[in-house]
Amino acid sequence: MATKVLVVDDSAMSRKMMIRSLPEGWDVEVSQAANGKEALEAYHAGKAEVMFLDLTMPIMDGYQTLEVLQKEGLDCFVIVVSADVQPEAEERVKKLGAMAFIKKPVNTEKVTEILKEYGIL
User: Fold this and answer.
1) Number of domains in the chain
2) Please, which residues have CB within 8 angstroms of residue 112's CB and are 6 or more apart in sequence?
């Protein structure tokens, strides 16, 4: 059965790059969202077993999205994908329930390494 993957980023180009970085042969059903509000709607619709989440977005950013997910009991595996590589950002998202942090631009090797580390792949 395909893993439901949600790619959340306000940039369509970044979403495409993230999707291209998913490991080859991984059986996935990919959905996309352009902000945290759309991400939560997709999450509630059951479209996010694994979520790749950007931090800087309009309407609702990645931090706000993680806060809501945490309050609701976070039932998906969140990997933050961001150009904000400050140690404080990584520490903050992990406290909010993110499992991993990948800096942009993403690459398949790093994504694969994290997915294998947590037994998803």
Assistant:
1) 1
2) 23, 121
| CA dist., res. 33 & res. 116, Å (int) | 25
Indicate whether this model's pTM tops 0.85. Answer: yes
Is 65 in contact with 39 (CB distance < 8 Å)?
yes
Domain at 8, CATH number: 3.40.50.2300
pLDDT of residue 87: 86
- pLDDT tens per residue, range 25-57: 999 999 999 999 999 999 999 999 999 999 999
How far is CA 114 from each of CA 62, 72, 97, 106, 109, rounded to the nearest angstrom?
19, 24, 15, 12, 9
User: Phi and psi (nearest 5°) for 21?
Assistant: -85, -5
Q: Which structural domain range is residue 43 located in? A: 3-117
